[in-house]
Amino acid sequence: MFKPQKTAAFIMSLLICAVSAAAPIYSVSADDEAPESSVYETSAAEESLISSGDYKYSLTSDNNVCIEEYSGSEENVVIPDTIDGLSVKEIGSGAFFESSAVSVHIPSSVDYIYENPFLDASGLKEITADEGNSTFFSEDGILYEKSDSGNILRCYPQGKEGSSFAVPDGVTKIGTAALYSTKLSELTLPDSLEELERHCFSYNQLLKKIDFSGTAVTEIGIMAMAECSTLTEVVFPDSLISIESAAFAGCKALSHVDLPDSLVYIGQNAFAATGLKSVKIPSSVTTIDYCAFGYDENLEPQSDFTIIGTYGSAAQIYCTDSDDEYDYANNFTFIDSANADLYEEAESFEYETSGDYTYAISNGEAYITACVSTDDHIEVPAEFNGIPVTKIYAGAFFQNQASEITLPDSVKSIGSLSFYLCSNLKTLNLPEGLENIDNQAFSDCTSLETLYIPGTCTSIGDEVFLNCSSIREFTAGEGENAAYSAENGVLYNRDKTVLIAYPPAKTDKSFTAPKSVKEIGTSAFLGALSLEKADISSVITINSYAFEGCSKLSSVKFSKDLELIGEAAFYNCNSLKSVRLYDNIKEIDAVALGYVYGEVQNEDSSSDEESTSSYGDVLLDGFVIYAPEDSGGAGFAQLNDIKCVTNTVGLFGYNIEKGFIYGIFGALAALLLMIIGIITGKKIKKSRSEKETERLKQSVREKLEKKNEADTSSESEEENESQSDIK
Fold first, then answer.
1. 114-126 pLDDT per residue, tens
2. CB proximity list for 59: less than 8 A, separation 6 or greater
3. What confidence tens digit (pLDDT) does each residue in 199-231 have?
4. Fewest 10 Å CB contacts: which of 500, 547, 573, 660?
5. Summary count for the chain: helices (H), strands (E)
């Protein structure tokens, strides 16, 4: 546990060196050499000060006066424009500390004021400035400073009457401790506001709400809202990048905050000693410093504190962050943000126990929230005290070691991660009346071999079967309202337009998706170790992690209509050396193609020093993308320094340059023309020959006919002569 005494910290105490009453101490620096800091810093050493009447002053660099201390008892103080014949040019940061003055007038000679010199002047109601002052001016007793970028609110008098105040338009900065410990319960900020300096609103113990949403503020300064003990609501701007150290420390009534997605940095003790029991941290946050959340006013950790965030983010790392040097170790509960609603719902339940089960009752139904049975075969009860069991709640069987679990027919719903890490579970009997299965319900059930989806099931969440490495077959029930189907052990939606899950233990080396499939679900083929070839030539959308870890996959046939390849879709596909993409690609997300997890050589390693390395995303050696010029595939290749070959076509499983194809086609065309010419010539010759033969035949026929006619005529004459002789 972090010990504040081990640091010479940036001490949170607006009263340090100023107020005798004890205040909580919040360390905001883990650097032993860091200087201590209060609301203000003295402008000069005490021994160098010069006394003159009610004033002590130091000399500026140009031998003018900087007032460091006022010790007078006048209620209406008019600061002189000269002291001891020297011009009063500056007012030091603690000059009127704990002064009993009711009003203070600043002369025209003053052109510089260190931070807020009126700290803890609790009776001060008004500050005015001479009209001739070119740097400072006053409105309604409030002190402002002119600047090139807009006005700065320098001091709102602590004793000023009134419970509400609207910072004027045109103010771009709230100065250090400018609205410290006021009587305000309502504060309105202008659109022009851009900057908040340290302690600017601290110790406003009547202020219940602060709304930054209309401002352009990017940083909540160090201890800006510290010890606003009645503050219950904070609205952050979308522009916010940083919440600095102890910014909301000691805001005991603050039990909920909505951090914006723009936020990147959360400083040390930023929300220490607040009323927060949990916090949702956006994935945009990259740094969370010591004791930022989950620590009380003594910097003791809260045992029941919960962090909601995304896996692998700074939020998750913070939950178990530690530092041996400072004896600092977090041990907070981490909830994935996808399950945040479930967490809030679970917080509202009243729980009961029965045997090995803990359950909650909601709307006359029992939800099993935990099972501690050590039996190898578990028969889940259908009711508790006559109340039907309708839901297995999120995480209920987490790490249960049973090999077989049977759910009753009364169960309609299975929650997220319900059977997470049930590594011995081989058989899970789901009831026919089951209606929905939430995200990752069976994640890491590494012994589960088959799973039947009842025909009554209408909803299956994302990655329900994540890392179920032994599943070799899915089956699905039929029915009029059945939402899912199975074919050859693969799970689809009813009309087979979406492939939901491919059994990772299926031994087939190749897979061809039905022509109806248009979408591959998230992590659908994750860890399919036997798969070598995939024909998904009808698919338009490939979601994130779809083929991650398919280490033998060497060939994928994509559709010409493919539009999206999601994040890490083919991550760790070590055998996939090339892919062919087409013109229709609109989006390829991070590390979708060509990336594997491996050793990353640090770029800053020099040749004369021992090289260092780490592990992360690296490009697969020799990976190539074949894609048209100016296409999404070519753009992804260029962005990731992947070799891209354009002007090629896929032919018989090979990538062939278009120029070569055009040459082949040209040669083939010439050959075809030659063949056509030969055939045509032969046909013409044949036609001519046939005509000549026919002519000759006709000539012979004519000659024969003439001969026959001649012979007939001769025979007739001879017959006549013979008859004549007989007579």
1. 999 999 999 999 9
2. 50, 65, 66, 86
3. 999 999 999 999 999 999 999 999 999 999 999
4. 660
5. 4, 57
Residues 683-703 have a mean pLDDT of 65
Residue 28 is predicted with a pLDDT of 42
The pair of three-digit structure tokens given for residue 98, joined into one six-digit string: 């704990």
Residue located via tokens 């021994």: 47
**By C-alpha distance, which of 237, 356, 249, 327 is closest to 293?**
249
Torsion sign (Cα): 155, 158, 161, 167: positive
Asked whether the whole model's pTM tops 0.70, one would answer: no
* 153 vs 171: CA distance, rounded Å: 7
What are the C-alpha distances in Å from 206 to residues 21, 124, 180, 274, 445?
19, 18, 12, 16, 54
* 3-class secondary-structure state, position 338: helix
- Helix H or strand E encompassing 559: none
Structure tokens at 112: 């510089």
Asked if residues 85 and 107 have their Cβ atoms less than 8 Å apart, the reply is no
Residue 562 is encoded by which pair of tokens? 């493919």
Has residue 647 got a pLDDT over 60? yes
387 phi/psi in degrees, rounded to 5:
-95, 120
Listed residue (546, 537, 549) closest to 575, CA to CA: 549
Look at residue 386 and give its three-state secondary structure: coil
Average pLDDT, the chain: 87
Is residue 427 classed exposed, middle or buried when 0-12, 13-18 and 19+ CB atoms within 10 A define those classes? middle
Q: What's the pLDDT score for residue 344?
A: 78
For residue 524, which of 553, 548, 488, 552 has the smallest C-alpha distance?
548
Span 430-438, average pLDDT: 95
List 173's β-bridge partners, or say none.
152, 195
> CA 679, 683, 685 angle in degrees (round to 5)?
115
CA separation for the pair 127, 91 (Å, rounded): 13
Query: Both tokens of residue 311?
Result: 């896996």
Q: Are 176 and 153 in contact (CB under 8 A)?
A: no
Q: Are 77 and 70 in contact (CB under 8 A)?
A: yes
Q: Mind listing the pLDDT tens digit for each residue in 408-421?
A: 999 999 998 899 99
One-letter identity of residue 399: Q
3-class SS at 196? strand
What is the number of other CB atoms lying within 10 angstroms of the CB of residue 50? 15
CA 526 to chain centre: 21
Asked if residue 241 lies in contact with residue 262, where contact means CB atoms within 8 angstroms, the answer is: yes
Identify each DSSP E strand in 363-483 by its residue range: 365-371, 377-379, 383-384, 387-392, 404-406, 413-414, 427-429, 436-437, 450-453, 459-460, 473-476
CA 40 distance to own-chain centroid? 40
**Contacts by residues 367-374 (CB-CB < 8 Å, ≥ 24 positions apart):** 367/391, 367/392, 367/393, 368/392, 368/393, 368/396, 369/393, 369/395, 369/396, 370/395, 370/396, 371/396, 371/397, 371/400, 373/400, 373/402, 374/401
DSSP percent split of the chain into helix, strand, coil, nearest 5: 15, 30, 60
